[in-house]
Amino acid sequence: MIFPATCVESEADQTIDRWQLLAGVLAELLHWRDQLGSPAFFSEWSSHLAFRGEKVIVSGTQRESLIGKLIGIDKDGNLILELNGGKREKVMVGDVRLRAV
Asked: What DSSP string describes the chain?
C-alpha cells in the first residue's frame, strides 16, 4: 500500500485533543477561503505539493496517461509535467490522479 492509513496521535507521538484539531483545521480553511486563486494561495499550495521533482504518471484525463517529472502548478492550478525530451505539459489538476512511478 502506497499511502497506508495512520493515526494523528501515532504520528505526533502524543495525545491530541480532537476538538482543538478540528478548530485548527476549520480556522485554516476559513483563512484560505477568501484567498482562493490568489498568488499567495498558489504559492502556499505549490510549497506543499506532493511528488515535486519526482517521476509520476498522471491518469484520469480525457487522453492517454502521461509520464513525466512533476514540476509544480501554474497560476491557474494546472499541474506542470516535464515529459521525456524536456517538453512541458499542463494538466488540469481536477482531471488527474497522481501516483509515484
From this structure: --S----HHHHHTS---HHHHHHHHHHHHHHHHTTTTSHHHHHHHHHT-TTTTSEEEEESSSS--EEEEEEEE-TTSEEEEE-GGG-EEEEEGGG-EEEE-
The string over 54-63, giving b where at least 16 C-beta atoms fall within 10 Å of a residue's C-beta and e elsewhere, is eebebeeeee
pLDDT tens for each residue of 7-32: 999 999 999 999 999 999 999 999 99
Distance between CA 38 and CA 29 in Å, rounded?
A: 15
> What gap in Å lies between CA 99 and CA 50, rounded to an integer?
10
Give the residue among 5, 67, 54, 82 at the shortest CA–CA distance from 96: 67
